[in-house]
Design goal:
The protein has a domain of about 90 residues: Thrombin, subunit H (Beta Barrel), CATH 2.40.10. About 5% of the residues lie in helices and about 45% in strands. It contains 1 helix and 9 strands. Strands 3-4-9-6-5 form a 5-stranded antiparallel beta sheet. The protein has a two-stranded antiparallel sheet with strand order 1-2. A two-stranded antiparallel sheet has the order 7-8.
Length: about 140
């Protein structure tokens, strides 16, 4: 899984069970970073849903992180942040900042996150004969 905060270190791989387990070492106090994560659209290829666009961007380090549904089941996996130019550009616009006239330029973009749909993940795992469990 991907995480935007690299100081998250209170876990380890248990080689005997091939599973991740929590430990009492490392930094257990990684800050939670709540974001709204509203599904804005499903993206398909004409036959099936391929990915899910989210209202919030994926932060650096989140690729590979899960998208959960309302029941806490994995619904997708973060893989991309897309940037849409909004066209509200300002060039050398004078605004007052702390009472001082200041020229600014601004080129706003909307940043959205994209997740691979869980069905595509299942297809990949099945193709590679990788065992997984459905809850």
């Amino acid at each position: 899984m991907g995480y935007p905060f690299p100081e998250f270190t209170n876990y380890q791989l248990n080689k005997q069970t091939d599973d991740i387990e929590w430990t009492e070492t490392g930094n257990p106090n990684t800050p939670r970073f709540p974001i709204d994560g509203i599904i804005t659209r499903f993206v398909g290829d004409g036959k099936q849903i391929v990915s899910i666009e989210m209202s919030t961007p994926g932060l650096r380090g989140q690729s590979g992180g899960p998208l959960f549904d309302t029941d806490g089941k994995v619904y997708g996996m973060q893989f991309l942040t897309s940037h849409y130019h909004l066209g509200f550009d300002m060039q050398e616009k004078e605004v007052m900042i702390n009472g001082v006239p200041t020229n600014i330029s601004n080129y706003p973009f909307l940043h959205v996150g994209w997740c691979v749909h869980v069905d595509r993940i299942r297809e990949f795992l099945d193709e590679k004969k990788i065992t997984y469990f459905n809850a």
